[in-house]
């Protein structure tokens, strides 16, 4: 009975305080380990009210953010976050108490949980079936095709409503028949994780009946997937963004849009006043120019080089179509891959332009539903976007933010044209060699 040994609870409290005590508006009481015995726990006194009785949605968001750090960053989590163990302090902060029941979430399980959320939101139910094996929910011998079909039937309608409308409790309930049919196993860690998230969602519903904890957690998941250096998560990101070698820019847009909603402090639940577009541009630039953004930056530079290569090929072809500025060319000699790359370039340019148009919603706009597929485009569209980006009014917001970036980010920004040019030259050279010798 480890929970009855208060020395262990004190050690848990010390570790919890070290990991999460510095998070914004989180209070973890100090443990007096030297004065604690097996039967007596000595800890700092915390004044406050039960979180469930005060209807403070901001502190729910603080709890969600803290839970994200517990479950997906460090793997050491509070496994008994019932309303009596979560307090709103007199100065409006969230206090955790009672550290007798804690859980450990191993790194491979943390990555597996992130991948499962990612695949669920993006309706990749075949990959989700594999995630369930990784998480130990179904045996490796299960019929993957049948499981995929069953998961599609269970989750498709729920996910179609959007990530902000997905309820953990509903998902768990919908799995009932499928769990029995495929002999699902519920590891102890999984039941504790789901329980801790369900408790937070239950408390939040008392303040906001439409609150969904996954909708609040997913922005942090999206940001972690975009920035984490874990080889497994980077592999998952690449698999998510590419299907049969084709870049899925709609998925990048979705991840970027969600990650920009991952804010700290009061901005968790309150829209920032004024300058929202400027804040978003700075966030995107800061992310792309840091070491954490290097993986995504590399993908974007690669796709831009492929698109510019295709655009150059189109511009050098025989003239059958006329652009507004008088240059004529044809795409008749372009391969299907070239056309896809040109389409991707068009959509990347739209995405870059749309980041500057982000309003108070914090959502990236610009790539509409009709552009979600890699259909062929009119090259006049590319010209239009190029002209739009060349407008001084569009460029000034970015230029004005550059001095605010750290020196290392400014230097990285200066290196981008050289990097992109090198990639483009390599592609053009490879294409020329193929045409000469093949």
Automatic annotation (TrEMBL):
InterPro entries: ABC1_dom, Kinase-like_dom_sf, UbiB_kinase. It holds the Pfam family ABC1. Residues 2-130 form the ABC1 atypical kinase-like domain. Belongs to the protein kinase superfamily. ADCK protein kinase family. This is ABC1 atypical kinase-like domain-containing protein.
